[in-house]
Automatic annotation (TrEMBL), chains A, B:
It comes from the Bacteria. It holds the Pfam family MarR. Residues 12-145 form the HTH marR-type domain. The lineage of its organism: Bacteria, Pseudomonadati, Pseudomonadota, Alphaproteobacteria, Hyphomicrobiales. Gene3D superfamilies: Winged helix-like DNA-binding domain superfamily/Winged helix DNA-binding domain. InterPro entries: HTH_MarR-typ, MarR/SlyA-like, WH-like_DNA-bd_sf, WH_DNA-bd_sf. This is MarR family winged helix-turn-helix transcriptional regulator. SMART domains: HTH_MARR.
Amino acid sequence: MPESTIDYGYLENDLGYVLRRAQLWVFQDLIRTMSPVDLRPAQYSVLVIIHHNPGLSQISLASALGIERARLVRLLDQLEDRKLVERRPAASDRRSHAMHLTLEGERTLASARELATAHRQACLEEFGGQNNYTTLVRLLAKFGAPQ
Amino acid sequence: MPESTIDYGYLENDLGYVLRRAQLWVFQDLIRTMSPVDLRPAQYSVLVIIHHNPGLSQISLASALGIERARLVRLLDQLEDRKLVERRPAASDRRSHAMHLTLEGERTLASARELATAHRQACLEEFGGQNNYTTLVRLLAKFGAPQ
DNA sequence: TATTGTTATACTCTATAACTATA
DNA sequence: TATAGTTATAGAGTATAACAATA
């Protein structure tokens, strides 16, 4: 039975359903385009946030990414094993770590950024142009955004 | 260090990042509002598709949902254990199953539908109105949609 | 040979609770 | 007491490969 005969009911007007389909597509394309630097979406976003906020704590980082601090620990373990990030002792609070990118981390992020350009272009084309893309990002940014 | 000092860099203009944040919010709200009928988003969408396409095969169902057929097996096992769906032998192809909702499955879906109304209302309010919601769904439906 | 459903495996991600060392 | 980081566990979801029954 071909897919074209499927009736999606009200699911095709369900925000959760279309969000999931879209995110699946975008993440798969991101994973594919990032494969030369071997970064998954979560790892990439960790590097971006640390780059723009050197010295921030793990709890701030987890909050910015919208993930649990327990999940962040293993993410950072992997990136630290690959010598891309560093946990340094925080000056003011000895419980806390100050997160920094290593030189290689900065280099990897720079490469990732170039690859991200190709990914963004793929999204633009898949989606139907700059205007729709911009509108979409603007509308989505209102949801669950860290204030 | 308060979150308000975080610099998200270009991440806040990254489609994958905002998609993930939005989906997280919507799914969490959906899980919360569906808790009286104990259905997760994937389970709910299974019931919806079967209801609108009684007798369809597992492979068609998996394709409609954008999940692997191996993943669907366990989803259906759970729902069948709860007597919400039935795998019946397909008339034309003895390899295949014809999926149906039980009477209790139809009742549960009807309850879920009513709860979904509250969820939709929560999304509308979180997001900022019917117009934005409709625009968003329309733009997202172009991504990775089954043709 | 190819397809449908199944089983198995490995990995990612989410959600929680509890522990330690500091505050 | 509360907080930052960690460890452990359970479940959900994703991605593959292989298998039996059937086409």
